[in-house]
């Protein structure tokens, strides 16, 4: 290394989703000549594409085995997997809109133990009965109240910093028309965004029932963009996802690549058709009218933003024309219909970058830079036509 006197921070990016959330965190260290940031990508079932994503940011990774034996001053991670093996204090960063999906490995639960979402469960926070992190950051005060019941041992390590996506989307809302122009949404056109989390109960897991409606029922003047969770691409492979969607070729439906910033697309939407994933909840911060596919209630935390949204948003039915359902949902939308959902995403809106930076520098034991950390609006996106499948073409996305 040419520069050797820096504090060394390790960023542990298990998946592309985690890497995208951690980008909001390690970006706070830019311009500080006292800190060297090192990146690694441990083995993970959904790890495909992480190295390529980081490489696109100009980032070089070190092997996970090398990172395990190296000395660092701090590590940043959005997953608990393997963190107890590191020889450094770890900051756990929550990802997504609240804590939605309940812990799936019920065999690990004690008899009568309640299922909690990952970042609130003892299985994800403790190792050998001890808290495995130096700090655990959450988005909302509600999370600390839940943590006091689910894993009180972790409460002294927990702090509320807010949600970077909330702050970015809020900062981007004044630029909505600029995003629409960049996407190629022309005057008089309406943009329908279909978002999907991953797993069999997601929109994509049931897409064979929704795609025919999108293809056959939307009138002229409607543009469609698909926002699929990166785990869908990582789990099945980019080629397979495109092959399944080959019927969209030449129909003007854009498939947003997993490495692309989804926030401008969400901001630009007139309607969002979503599921119990985070993007649906983040959609309540925009001007879009929401429609949901049926949610698997037994898999969702009852206090999560997704559960709150499921209680107030209309649900898509295959028994009625989709265009009519979109129009009905828009006309029937009530003022403040999604306000409670939006408020549940962060109890300190606009403060993530300032609070998160204070946590990091406090653990590093050095003073913060004498400059503010405002949330910048998302950058302009590419045109939707750049992401459309040509007829008969299922080549991988670039």
Your description of this structure?
This protein has 398 residues and is α/β, with parallel strands linked by helices. The chain folds into two domains: 7-165 and 346-364, Glycogen Phosphorylase B (Rossmann fold), CATH 3.40.50.2000; 172-345, Glycogen Phosphorylase B (Rossmann fold). The protein is built from 16 helices and 14 strands. The chain has helices at 16-26, 50-56, 64-69, 122-125, 141-150, 164-172, 176-183, 207-217, 230-236, 238-244, 263-268, 278-282, 305-310, 322-332, 339-343, 352-364, and strands at residues 7-12, 35-40, 61-62, 74-77, 90-93, 126-127, 130-131, 135-138, 158-160, 190-196, 222-228, 253-255, 271-274, 289-292. The chain has a seven-stranded parallel sheet. α5 links the parallel β8 and β9 (158-160). α9 (230-236) packs across α10 (238-244). The longest helix has 13 residues, at 352-364. The radius of gyration is 21 Å and the shape is globular. The model has no long low-confidence stretch (mean pLDDT 88).
